[in-house]
Specification:
- The structure is a single chain.
- By secondary structure, the protein is α+β, with helices and mostly antiparallel strands.
- It has one domain: 4-Layer Sandwich (Deoxyribonuclease I, Chain A), CATH 3.60.10.
- The protein contains 6 helices and 20 strands.
- The strands form 5 sheets. Strands 1, 2, 3, 4, 14, 15 and 20 form a 7-stranded mixed beta sheet that branches. Strands 5-6-7-8-13-10-9 form a 7-stranded mixed beta sheet. The chain has a two-stranded antiparallel sheet with strand order 11-12.
- Helix 2 packs across helix 3.
- It is globular and about 60 Å long.
Length: 355
């Protein structure tokens, strides 16, 4: 009888152990953490903000931005987010060119996203004259928000220039790791790429200082991820020289790299299709970039980048073939002041982390 009881007890313990292994997010099973970046091209509401120059995006403005067009835009963005998620919605979504909290509330409450997701949001409140800002949607079930802040982007060499800040959000993942996410929309190339470069370089200097500080004191389970619209290619001086982000490719020796080293995931050597995230007059650029700390690339990391998962995503429903032919380009909402009824003038980006 005692032998029978001992055998039963051992079997019971073994069954319980197998059940725990199968149900634990950290034991015996790889889990994915999905991240998306998207410049949504002027997501304005239809209400006038007297403190901002948003007159063009009013029903009486030059863009004739009606409530119907606004509702269509919201639905389009929800469709792209759903498509990028595929089998599961992204855990984090960095959004660029959003006007305010109202448009995010409408995105989550007046589209299918509200019924199918549990997103919460953060949005900056910068000094951009038109009122466009950056935002982060996050799933609190997989990203426990620890802190957030806006990094004001001001320029000592041009105190009159007003722009949006950089948004930082720090969260704890189910793996126990801390992920610091920076959502960026660096100053545009208006006035020429060379003349405007110093503004983007100053933004990258701010990013470099912030990531170095976090990674120096954070330890091996602290990671940084930078995404958004950098208004330039990764090979250009602001990101290559000032941010000091190196192009990453599979097989690169990174184990001896300093803990503060950053790597860019989408660059010319990746040879992806499409050839960039943005196309202007037939010229492609990877304006929408992804940079991450070396800690997410090390072989022994508990939280790790999934090789080859970073990509610029092109899908037929939010693409259009130009009248002159060639590769499909983003199906944009506006061409100048002409309403095209599309999605955005940028393609979204995505990457996966595993734990």
């Amino acid at each position: 009888m005692d032998t029978h009881r001992r055998r039963f007890g051992l079997l019971h313990l073994l069954s319980l152990a197998l059940l725990l292994v199968g149900s634990s997010p950290l034991l015996g099973q790889e889990h994915l953490f999905r991240i998306m970046g998207y410049n949504v091209e002027n997501l304005f509401d239809t209400e006038d903000d007297p403190t901002k120059d948003d007159d063009a995006f009013l029903p009486t403005g030059e863009q004739h931005w009606t409530k119907e067009r606004y509702r269509t835009k919201l639905q389009h963005i929800a469709e792209v987010i759903s498509a990028v998620g595929a089998d599961a919605f992204p855990d984090l979504i960095g959004l660029v060119e959003v006007e305010n909290a109202t448009v995010l509330q409408d995105l989550l409450q007046k589209t299918t996203l509200g019924a199918n997701t549990s997103y919460r949001y953060l949005v900056s409140s910068g000094e951009d004259r038109r009122g466009i800002d950056v935002a982060l949607l996050y799933d609190p079930r997989t990203f426990t928000l620890l802190s957030s802040e806006e990094l004001p982007l001001t320029f000592p060499f041009d105190t009159e220039k007003k722009t949006r800040p950089i948004l930082r959000a720090s969260g704890r993942l189910l793996s126990g790791d801390t992920l610091h996410v920076f959502v960026c929309h660096l100053p545009s190339r208006r006035g020429g790429a060379w003349a405007s470069e110093r503004y983007r370089s100053w933004g990258c200097r701010l990013l470099r200082e912030a990531t170095e500080k976090l990674l120096t004191v954070g330890g091996c389970h602290t990671h940084c991820l930078l995404l958004g619209d950098f208004n330039g290619d990764p090979e250009e001086a602001p990101t290559a020289r000032v941010l000091q982000s190196l192009p990453y490719r599979q097989g690169l020796e990174i184990e001896s790299a300093p803990s503060t080293q950053l790597y860019s995931l989408l660059h010319r050597a990746t040879q992806q299709k499409p050839r960039g995230s943005y196309c202007y007059q037939g010229v492609w650029s990877q304006l929408d970039q992804i940079h991450l700390s070396v800690s997410l690339l090390r072989r022994g990391s508990r939280l790790r980048y999934v090789e080859g998962s970073a990509e610029t995503l092109r899908r037929p429903f939010y693409s259009v073939v130009p009248a002159s032919g060639g590769d499909p380009v983003p199906f944009r909402t506006y061409g100048g002041s002409f309403y095209r009824g599309g999605y955005s003038d940028h393609f979204p980006t995505r990457l996966l982390l595993s734990y």
